[in-house]
C-alpha cells in the first residue's frame, strides 16, 4: 500500500510539472479544448504520447512522424518534480503546503525560463497558501526582504522586480532564516553557472525555485 501511495505522489509531481509546462507556454491564450501537438509537424498527439516520462521513453525522445527530437529538459523537469514531491512525502513534510508552493513556484520558474518574466496574475496562486498558513505568516521578514532587495536593486541594479516580489512572498510564508538560505543557495548556483558557463545574465526564478525545494525537504 505504501508503495502505491509513493507511486501516486511521484506521478502527481511529474504530472504537475508536465501540465504547468503547457500552461506557462500558452498563457494567457489557453483554450480548454486544446490538444497537445508536436512543436514541429503540428500533429495532434495521441493520449499515450502525453503521459509524463512514459511518453518520452516509449517514443525514444522523438516525434514518431517527423522524427524531431523532444527537448530533454521536459523529461528532466518532470522527473525532478516527481522526485521532489516523493522526497517531501518521505521526509514527512506538510504535503498540502509543499505541493501548493511547488505548484506556484514551478509555474513561475517555467514562465521566467521561457519568457524572462512572470505574470502578476500567477501570484494569485499564492493566496490559498497564505490562507492556510494564516497563523504562521512572517510580516516583518517579508517587509525587510522587500525593502532590502529594493535598496540593493536601487544601488546596484540587476535584480528583477519579479525576483524581489517572489522572495518577499517566500519570506512571508517561510520566515527570514529560510529566505536568506534560499537567496544564498540560489546565488551560489548562479555563481557556479557564471564560472563554468561564462554567462552573467540569469533567469533567477528557476534558481530560487530549485533552492526552495531543496531547503524545504531538508529543513
Ligand atoms: Zn512531429
From TrEMBL:
<feature type="transmembrane region" description="Helical">
    <location>
        <begin position="169"/>
        <end position="195"/>
    </location>
</feature>
<keyword id="KW-1133">Transmembrane helix</keyword>
<dbReference type="GO" id="GO:0006465">
    <property type="term" value="P:signal peptide processing"/>
</dbReference>
<dbReference type="GO" id="GO:0004190">
    <property type="term" value="F:aspartic-type endopeptidase activity"/>
</dbReference>
<feature type="transmembrane region" description="Helical">
    <location>
        <begin position="73"/>
        <end position="90"/>
    </location>
</feature>
<feature type="transmembrane region" description="Helical">
    <location>
        <begin position="96"/>
        <end position="116"/>
    </location>
</feature>
<keyword id="KW-0472">Membrane</keyword>
<keyword id="KW-0812">Transmembrane</keyword>
<feature type="domain" description="Prepilin peptidase A24 N-terminal">
    <location>
        <begin position="12"/>
        <end position="89"/>
    </location>
</feature>
<protein>
    <recommendedName>
        <fullName>Prepilin peptidase A24 N-terminal domain-containing protein</fullName>
    </recommendedName>
</protein>
<feature type="transmembrane region" description="Helical">
    <location>
        <begin position="123"/>
        <end position="149"/>
    </location>
</feature>
<dbReference type="GO" id="GO:0005886">
    <property type="term" value="C:plasma membrane"/>
</dbReference>
<feature type="transmembrane region" description="Helical">
    <location>
        <begin position="6"/>
        <end position="27"/>
    </location>
</feature>
<feature type="transmembrane region" description="Helical">
    <location>
        <begin position="202"/>
        <end position="218"/>
    </location>
</feature>
<dbReference type="InterPro" id="IPR050882">
    <property type="entry name" value="Prepilin_peptidase/N-MTase"/>
</dbReference>
<dbReference type="Pfam" id="PF06750">
    <property type="entry name" value="A24_N_bact"/>
</dbReference>
<dbReference type="InterPro" id="IPR010627">
    <property type="entry name" value="Prepilin_pept_A24_N"/>
</dbReference>
Amino acid at each position: 500500500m505504501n508503495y502505491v501511495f509513493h507511486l501516486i505522489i511521484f506521478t502527481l509531481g511529474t504530472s504537475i510539472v508536465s501540465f504547468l509546462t503547457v500552461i506557462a507556454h500558452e498563457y494567457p491564450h489557453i483554450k480548454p479544448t486544446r490538444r497537445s501537438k508536436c512543436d514541429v509537424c503540428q500533429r495532434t498527439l495521441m493520449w499515450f504520447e502525453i503521459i509524463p516520462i512514459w511518453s518520452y521513453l516509449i517514443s525514444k525522445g522523438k516525434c514518431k512522424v517527423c522524427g524531431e527530437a523532444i527537448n530533454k529538459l521536459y523529461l528532466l523537469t518532470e522527473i525532478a518534480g516527481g522526485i521532489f514531491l516523493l522526497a517531501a512525502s518521505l521526509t514527512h513534510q506538510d504535503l498540502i503546503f509543499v505541493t501548493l508552493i511547488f505548484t506556484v513556484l514551478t509555474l513561475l520558474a517555467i514562465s521566467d525560463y521561457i519568457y524572462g518574466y512572470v505574470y502578476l496574475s500567477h501570484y494569485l496562486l499564492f493566496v490559498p497558501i497564505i490562507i492556510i498558513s494564516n497563523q504562521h505568516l512572517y510580516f516583518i521578514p517579508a517587509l525587510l526582504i522587500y525593502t532590502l532587495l529594493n535598496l540593493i536593486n536601487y544601488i546596484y541594479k540587476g535584480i528583477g522586480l519579479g525576483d524581489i516580489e517572489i522572495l518577499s512572498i517566500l519570506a512571508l510564508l517561510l520566515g527570514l532564516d529560510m529566505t536568506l538560505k534560499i537567496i544564498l543557495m540560489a546565488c551560489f548556483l548562479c555563481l557556479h553557472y557564471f564560472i563554468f558557463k561564462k554567462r552573467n545574465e540569469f533567469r533567477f526564478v528557476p534558481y530560487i525555485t530549485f533552492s526552495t525545494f531543496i531547503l524545504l525537504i531538508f529543513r
